[in-house]
Amino acid sequence: MEFLREIDHSMQSGDDAKVRELTQQAIDAGLPASKILNEAFLEGMAVVGRKMGAHEIFLPEVLMAARAMKAGVELLKPLLAADDVSTVGKVVVGTVKGDLHDIGKNLVGIMLEGAGFEVFDLGADVEAEVFVDLAEAEGANVIGLSALLTTTMVNMKPVIDLVRERGLENKIRVVVGGAPVTQEFAEEIGADAYGYDANHAVGIIKELVGVA
């Protein structure tokens, strides 16, 4: 439908004011909130993710599209809650203890939201217990850990160890990423998966929860 195509185009262009205006018009026209979410926002952000993966667009464009998406989704949230529309999964993300870098983690969170996940962003410098406590309390499927320093990436392992100590390894998967992190390191610390960039991390998480 025309509204959905226009919302999608405006979102990918990063025009948050236009997205907000068109989303309200679509709601007023009686389009179901779930249809607007799925066919305009989620499909549009999937295109953004593919373009980023193909290096056709870069971080500034992705962040602009994400900001525009949030502008529209805010209008949909009360309607989606009233309709009891479920998310495809829940993910807790954060940068590990001792590390204050958050751009990569932020991008993963944005793209996960664009893929239909409910995201709990703990920010940076997060203790292992905080990750696991929140994931357990919210019934999260995945914990996503980020680190940008070789001196802090070692703080990923305590999170994985704690998941196992609590017997949650079959309920909560742990995905790791960040500049110094490698597949070999992920395997060494017992992570369930390694995401080498934001787009890849989202794809891995989708596979882990069975929505790929």
Description:
The chain has 212 residues and is an alpha/beta fold. It has 2 domains: 81 residues, Methyltransferase, Methionine Synthase (B12-binding Domains), Chain A, domain 1, CATH 1.10.1240; 120 residues, Cobalamin-binding domain (Rossmann fold, 3-Layer(aba) Sandwich). Helix content is 57%, strand content 11%. The protein contains 9 helices and 5 strands; from the N terminus they run H-H-H-H-E-H-E-H-E-H-E-H-E-H. A 5-stranded parallel beta sheet has the order 2-1-3-4-5, sandwiched between helices. Strand 1, helix 5 and strand 2 form a beta-alpha-beta unit. The longest helix is centred in the N-terminal third of the chain and has 24 residues.
Describe the protein's topology.
Blueprint: H1 2-12, H2 16-28, H3 33-53, H4 59-82, E1 90-95, H5 103-114, E2 118-121, H6 128-138, E3 142-146, H7 157-165, E4 173-177, H8 183-189, E5 193-195, H9 198-209
